[in-house]
Amino acid sequence: MLSRSSNILLVALLFFTGPVWAEDSLEISDISRGLNAVDVPAGWKLKENIVKADFAFAKDDDISASARVETAAPKAQWSFSITPYLWLPNVNGTLKYNIPPGAGGSPDVEVGPNSYLENLQALLMISGEARKDRWSVFTDLIYLDFADQDSSVQTINFGGNLVSSSANIATSSSFRGIAWTLAAGYAIDTGKNVMLDVFGGLRYFEISASSDWQLVTSVTGPGGVQTFPSNGGVSESMNLLDGIAGVRGRVPLGSSNWSIPYYFDVGTGSSNLTYQWLLGVAYSFRWGGLTLAYRDLFYDQKDDKFLQDLRFSGPTFGVTFRF
């Protein structure tokens, strides 16, 4: 009589606890069949059932704990950096002006090479980056203002007829401009400890230039009808917007804090061609780093445009702050 009551009690216990460990249906079935065997002590069946139920609860706890760990795992956060820097380029280029007032032809003025520091009036140079996982957004802003760059009037264009001019006494040029780059990048897995981002974006370039010339004598065009005066001045402005694409990153030097940063972009749009590259050496700290590099920025328009070609090239030094 006691055995029959115990069996009934255990069946009821299984009925109510079954949903907890229903996933172990095979084991439950085996135990249920065992409960029908009267010659097996009911107490043993009860203990086995409790063990199985405890196992099921423990398994559920593991799953819950795992879910909690996964839920609590920190998501990738945005990181930021800002880099004020100083760039000291030489300036080289050719400017094709329109016909100045009182002149019969338009001058092509060659600028440089000039030392940037000798003629510097004002500057602002700063770059910044925001990064999350493999994605990044970065920007770079340069404001330049320099005057009295050594120049020379190379040719005079008299409506398609070019007349060379090698009789310069004193010609100088001044520049004021803004170069602003905005781009987004994606980090490529190189399989090595090398940082490589591919990126695409825009570069805006605004330039205002003026040139004052003084020649030994005036220049007369073909047929003697048009004349370019021996002295005078001219100014012109231009805005350029180009799409760019490129790569950037750094190559660590062993396990030290030293690395080699690199950058290259190329683009077109308002320009026939523009490109920029940088290569240097950097040292990292916990708060940021120091970078010393050589940088080159080039523009080419041709096609009788104002900015025939212009190059800024020279050393740059920057301090990066990360937060």
Give a quick set of tags describing it.
disordered N terminus; elongated; 2 domains; 323 residues; 3 helices; 15 strands; Lipocalin; 13-stranded antiparallel β-sheet; alpha+beta; single chain; 58% strand
Could you explain the architecture of this structure?
The chain is of the alpha+beta class and 323 residues long. It folds into two domains: 71 residues; 244 residues, Beta Barrel (Lipocalin). The protein contains three helices and 15 strands. The strands form two sheets. Strands 1, 2, 3, 4, 5, 6, 7, 8, 11, 12, 13, 14 and 15 form a 13-stranded antiparallel beta sheet that branches. The protein has a two-stranded antiparallel sheet with strand order 9-10. Strand 7 and strand 8 form a beta hairpin. Helix 1 packs parallel to helix 3 and helix 2 packs antiparallel against helix 3. It is elongated. 23% of the residues are buried. The N terminus is likely disordered.
